[in-house]
Write a structure and sequence with these properties.
The complex is a heterodimer of chains A (154) and B (724).
Chain A: E1 2-7, E2 10-15, H1 22-29, E3 48-51, E4 54-57, E5 70-72, H2 81-93, H3 102-115, H4 121-128, H5 138-148
Parallel strand pairs in A: 1-5
Antiparallel strand pairs in A: 1-2, 3-4, 3-5
Chain B: H1 4-7, H2 17-20, E1 34-35, E2 41-42, E3 47-49, E4 55-59, H3 68-80, E5 87-91, H4 96-99, H5 109-136, E6 143-146, E7 149-152, E8 157-160, H6 161-168, H7 199-204, E9 219-225, E10 233-235, H8 239-242, E11 247-253, E12 265-270, H9 273-281, E13 286-287, H10 297-309, E14 314-319, H11 322-327, E15 331-339, E16 351-357, E17 360-365, H12 370-381, E18 388-392, H13 406-416, E19 422-425, H14 428-433, E20 441-449, E21 455-467, E22 470-471, E23 489-497, H15 511-528, H16 533-541, E24 546-547, E25 556-557, H17 558-572, E26 582-591, E27 594-605, E28 608-619, H18 627-647, E29 652-653, E30 656-657, E31 676-680, H19 697-710
Parallel strand pairs in B: 4-5, 9-19, 17-18, 21-23, 28-31
Antiparallel strand pairs in B: 1-2, 2-3, 3-4, 6-7, 7-8, 9-12, 10-13, 11-12, 14-23, 15-20, 16-17, 16-19, 20-21, 21-22, 24-25, 26-27, 27-28, 29-30
Helix pairs in contact in B: 3-5, 5-6, 12-13, 15-19, 16-17, 18-19
The chains are: A alpha+beta (154), B alpha+beta (724).
């Protein structure tokens, strides 16, 4: 059936089964491939998007449950002031190694900073622990979040 | 350019491989001046220059997160003499006739390319100078360059590379050996930190990775294989899959017995990946009995214990007389070490896009080793290798998994049966259950100490996988690992057992386990000798000298190891007082031509382990090409090894992997990742790679720290709940 979504401020429609995860609607139906497939089980965070600003694992979110919530993806997060700061910090610190998980990392970090503009180390651990990085760029992720928050210099 | 091939699949470096085929690989330039739509002039297989002076440089080696797409073009740009901000990097296509070795493996790219790629840049610079000399009728010797500009100082004439390049491309290139390279003191680019390629695309979610590939009319595929490796499809009703909305087709693929190529399975093709996966889940596939179904981790451990008690199958190396030396030793220490199978689990699941049309095969592959894939695809499809085009796509991690190209063959074979381009994507479960695993292994060690605590004898009975004198892939061990040749009486014995499922290369193959075994046991000897673990290692290394033959890959420079050991001790404040329950552990190991010492501080409270901090000292020669990327590789290797040592092991039952996803094959998470301080100890040796050598010493540094903290010795990985 056809679902109507708001993705990055635009109205989009997708004619898919209701059990289709949002991740695959974004990637295969809408052509937004920024959110990544890593595990399909909400274990790695590579697929993280925002639903009404809340970090959400799109790989286990059926399209039928999205309803009227506003979907923000890595392709659109730069339009928010916090998202833009996080992306800039990620570039300034040169966080990525392979880069595959970084869209999810940026989405989780943006949600964190929107809720807690000056996070503690424990806040960072809590917010980011669901996002795996197999290359283990964690040292730079931590630094980039602090730079985006204005707590450290690049 | 970010994600260039993904946004415009027709775009690529223009190459005339025919013209280059006869020459020496690296420097066989094609000198036809080729223009493209932007008006750039292609000077050779690596360098294109635009009229406005913008430079495009091809990066030959696949990018898997090791940063090679930055560091190799830096080598060319340095000698070409341009400003780095004017450089755009493009991934080269897979073509060994032009580019030679295009493998992301063995940490070898820096070692092998450091001189040659600088000469590529120097050659283009020489041509630009020649073009200016001809234009101004002045001797070549009177000209010099500033970044992007040829300068005639005497007449104050200047010409930009963009102005000169169309003339330069028509000239005959100089003999690369005749070129004088820059004095490293004059480097403007090498040795300075430069950022990752594709940074903009990665941080904004633009198409970047193999899994992001989209072609017009493309369909999506899943491929179900048997739980035991190579099992045939006994029976399957395809109708339930075909009934799923969006599924276009489902078919059995006969496959073969070569586990590196395509094995039997069922392909489901659909208009979205989710539909293909639903179709696959609707199938009830009966798999044929398979001869390896009886194999399990428990059966291997039992067999290894049996083999350990029996005389070894063979002695691979023997110096002196170990048994006599042990009899005369003041103290002997014996210990058995073991480690599990490991999966690679790169974040990007295996995937590949392929189009097979009119006898031509076009592949877009995240691969570390394209030419091996080409050979397998050629055989599987019975086409000439020259009919196959392989585009190299940035890999979402490699760690050695993508040295194997099974998923590439699968994509090509499936696409050959479908009248559309096909993107095959594995599930995470497919990835963990169909890996080429780091082999498990068992080491039975005994050493003897004299009255002064010096090691006088060392033997290791290594139980591993193989048949006769042949090892399964990555299951062998180089017998000359340190302390071989430093201990007078040294023996390396080997026994093997058969294994039915595939093994492969995981980051620092072999060494990722041997570092744990050798440096863990060394720590036991230090404590048995009543000596400080760093001081004991210094004594074992002895005076600076080369063990083995100069120039051989296994020759070991005790002075270089001493250098990093001392540096790591200094960085970590070795010997300082730490609170009860906290310990410092040290380890040092040589692999992939790199010398690395690691110190770890860990705290154990109520059985729970916290890794507080790691320090890594690294000797990779006289020049670190890109300090930012180098730091990343060392930090990543250390943390990779910590996560692996703490949690990871793949368990087999009934010939199949039990683990399936990140729930039961955990990766290190941010809350458990300690800070890793990295320093480089420069030495007068050729620059070498950093993707691997910091991994091997790390698990040992960790278990040695845990011993210092608790008095409990870990001899079997993963550490898991052994301290609980």
């Amino acid at each position: 059936m056809a679902f109507t979504l708001t993705v990055n401020g635009e109205t989009r429609t997708a004619d898919v089964d209701g059990d289709t995860p949002l991740l695959w609607v974004l990637r295969d139906t809408l052509g937004l491939v920024g959110a990544k497939f890593g595990c399909g089980a909400a274990l790695c965070g590579a697929c993280t998007v925002h639903l009404d600003g809340e970090a959400t694992r799109s790989c286990v979110t059926p399209i039928s449950e999205v309803g009227g919530k506003k979907v923000t993806t890595i392709e659109g997060i730069g339009k928010t002031p916090v998202g833009a700061k996080v992306q800039e910090a990620w570039k300034a610190i040169d966080v990525p190694q392979c880069g595959y998980c970084q869209a999810g990392q940026i989405m989780s970090a943006s949600a964190l900073l929107a809720a807690k503009p000056k996070p503690t180390d424990a806040d960072i651990d809590d917010a980011m622990n669901g996002n795996l990085c197999r290359c283990a760029t964690y040292t730079r992720i931590r630094k980039a979040i602090k730079v985006a928050a204005g707590q450290e210099k690049a | 350019m970010d994600g260039e091939i993904l946004r415009d699949p027709t775009r690529r470096f223009i190459l005339q491989s025919g013209a280059a085929a006869g020459g020496g690989l690296l420097l066989s330039f094609t000198m036809t001046a080729e223009g493209n739509a932007a008006g750039d002039t292609q000077v050779n297989a690596y360098v294109r220059i635009a009229p406005d002076g913008k430079v495009t440089i091809a990066s030959k080696v696949p990018e898997v997160g090791q940063g090679i797409k930055t560091s190799l073009p830096m080598l060319i740009a340095e000698e070409l003499d341009v400003v780095w901000s004017a450089v755009t990097v493009e991934q080269a296509i897979a073509d060994s006739k032009i580019y030679g070795r295009q493998v992301a493996g063995g940490s070898m790219a820096t070692t092998l390319e450091y001189d040659g790629l600088r000469r590529v840049g120097a050659s283009v610079r020489a041509l630009l100078i020649q073009a200016a000399a001809a234009r101004w009728s002045v001797p070549v010797e009177s000209l010099t360059t500033e970044p992007g500009v040829v300068v005639h100082a005497a007449s104050k004439r200047r010409a930009s590379y963009g102005e000169l390049v169309s003339d330069a491309a028509k000239l005959t290139p100089p003999d690369p050996k005749s070129l004088t390279l820059k004095d490293p003191k004059a480097f403007r680019i090498i040795g300075k930190s430069h950022k990752s390629q594709n940074l903009e695309a990665i941080t904004t979610g633009q198409p970047t990775f193999g899994i992001d590939m989209r072609l017009p009319g493309m369909l999506y595929a899943t491929f179900a294989k048997g739980p035991t490796y190579g099992a045939k499809v006994a029976s399957v009703d395809l109708a339930p899959a075909k009934a799923v909305k969006g599924v276009k087709d489902a078919f059995v693929v006969e496959g073969g017995t070569n586990l590196q190529s395509i094995v039997p399975g069922v392909a489901v093709i659909a208009d979205s990946w989710w539909a293909a996966r639903k179709g696959r889940e609707a199938l009830d596939i009966k798999w044929a009995e398979h001869p390896t179904a009886a194999q399990s981790s428990a059966s291997f451990a039992a067999k290894a214990a049996e083999l350990a008690k029996a005389p070894p199958h063979r002695t691979a190396y023997n110096d002196g007389d170990v048994e006599t030396a042990l009899k005369g030793a003041a103290k002997t220490v014996s210990a058995a070490y073991s480690y599990p199978f490991l999966a690679h689990a790169p974040m990007e699941p295996q995937n590949c896009t392929a189009k097979v049309e009119n006898g031509k095969v076009e592949i877009w592959a995240p691969t570390q080793n394209p030419e091996a894939g080409r050979a397998l695809v050629a055989k599987a499809l019975n086409v000439d290798p020259s009919a196959i085009t392989i585009h190299l796509i940035r890999c979402g991690g490699g760690f050695g998994r993508r040295l194997m190209n099974d998923y590439m063959v699968e994509a090509a074979v499936i696409a050959s049966k479908v009248a559309a381009p096909v993107k095959l994507v594995w599930t995470r479960e497919d990835d963990i259950q169909h890996d080429f695993y780091r082999p498990a292994g068992w080491h039975n060690l005994t050493a003897g100490l004299d009255a002064n605590g010096a090691v006088v004898a060392w033997k290791d009975h290594f139980v591993t996988f193989g048949e006769g004198e042949t090892f399964n892939t990555s299951a062998g061990m180089n017998s000359t690992q340190f302390p071989c040749r430093a201990v007078a009486n040294y023996r390396h014995d080997i026994s093997v057992m058969q294994l039915g499922f595939p093994t492969g290369y995981l980051r620092a193959p072999g060494n990722n386990a041997f570092g744990f075994v050798i440096q863990g046991f060394t720590d036991e000897l230090a404590h048995a000798a009543g000596k400080d673990p760093v001081a004991f290692r210094r004594e074992m290394l002895g005076a600076p000298r080369l063990l083995g033959e100069p120039g051989k890959g296994d020759s070991f420079d005790t002075g270089r190891m001493r250098g990093v050991l001392d540096l790591a001790a200094e960085m970590s404040g070795w010997g300082r007082k730490v609170p009860k329950g906290t310990g410092l552990g040290v380890a040092c190991h040589f692999s992939h031509l790199g010398y690395v010492a690691v110190v770890i501080q860990a705290t154990v409270k109520d059985g729970a382990i916290k890794v507080d901090k790691a320090w890594a000292a690294v000797d990779c020669g006289r020049q670190v090409v890109n300090p930012s990327g180098a730091e990343q590789q060392v930090q990543g290797s250390v943390l990779d090894a910590i996560g692996s040592a703490l949690y990871q092991g793949v368990t087999f039952e009934n010939g199949a992997a039990v683990n399936s996803n990140f729930g039961d094959f955990p990766l290190l998470r941010i809350a458990d990742a300690p800070p890793v301080e990295v320093r480089f100890k420069l030495s007068d040796n050729n620059p070498t790679g950093l993707g691997e050598p910091a991994y091997p010493p790390t698990p040992a540094a960790l278990v040695n720290a845990l011993f210092a903290a608790t008095g409990k010795r870990i001899r079997s990985l993963p550490i898991a709940d052994q301290l609980a």
